[in-house]
Request: fold
Amino acid sequence: MSELVTITGIAAGGDGVGRLADGRAVFVPRAAPGERVRLKADGLTLHKSFARGELDAVLEPVAARVTPPCPHYAQDRCGGCQLQHLAYDAQLTAKRAIVGDALRRIGKVEVADPEIVEAVEEWRYRTEITLAVKTVGRSLKDSLTVAGGRTVGLHPYDSGTVFALVDCQIADFRLMALWRELRRHLDLLPAKCTQLTLRLDREGRRHVLAESAGEPWLGATELRAALPDGEHVVCWWHPAEGAARVIAGPATGFPPTAFEPVNPEMAMLARRWAVEQLGDVAGRTVWDLYGGIGDTAALLAERGAVVVSVDADEKAIAWARTRGLPGAVRLVAGKAEDLLPSLPRPDAAIVSPPRAGLHWDVTLRFSGEPVDRLVYVSRDAATLARDLSRLSVNYRVAAVRAFDLFPQTAQVETVVALEAA
Reply:
């Protein structure tokens, strides 16, 4: 027997959430808050305290429901986006609620759902896309010959299979123009290729990063020559165990494996607001932990701060050193938790950790030796809330603002300014 459920909100992963008749929370992909839906009888998976359901029909749709413009969203159940079925205003409301709920429920911070800065562009904003490569069959005569062809694309949200990508509408059109040409030459990818990443750098060059085991990428030069704008394309081979290196094209020094925001314009707005929350930093020592290629460090230095920027990625630090950052900036390669004892005592700090949040040792340092101002730039509301709870011993939340770096998805970036209590 199918279940009828009223959707009351959007969960952190983007699923609609409601309650079954027995009281268990049920998570339903592609449902919208306020809707009355019917779940597929054979699509309900029950767990001890929650359930996952599959949408059968929307019995009472809401005005916020829209027709997703991307064919892959419905036809292939693409897992790259989660909110294309919602109007943009409804997406923003959902993201504010995701952050607010996490801060209150996990972080025990009494705050309202934060203000959110809407995206400059709702579509075509991503400067990077990573595709899965599935090879079907190989010739027994020649292990390098693909007999059954390849499927290169993305994963459906409900399975580990791969569907062939035609166009990703949240990816920069320059990357998708490259992809349209590259699709014609998939036979030139490494024989054991498992992943293909397309990246756009800050000078407009496009990078193709092929990950594989076995021999180096033998067809890279031929592929680059076959592309209409191949002189502006750099081909990288990333062995299964080892560092990525240029196989064809100019060695620009751009580190394609280093972390960089996929929405640079919105990320800069978030960084600027984060730096502003520190107030006057002229002549003061400021830590920039998990600093990447130095964007935040540059903003701090422009304001006269003495900056110590730390990142575990040596290639990111090497790239940052070539930028000619203004003012007094010291760039250090290494894990923040290992380097803290050797760094000069800070007056303030900005931390931008990965989705896993702050290492416990970093949290202990800030709790044991508080700084006047600590700004946390987060890509995951749950780990942000966890860390704020740990830091609440010596800090209070002074300001919170969310930034929509990832339209059409459930991801949201949040910046929290903390003051020493």
Q: What stands out?
A: The radius of gyration is 23 Å. Confidence is low (pLDDT under 50) at residues 138-148.
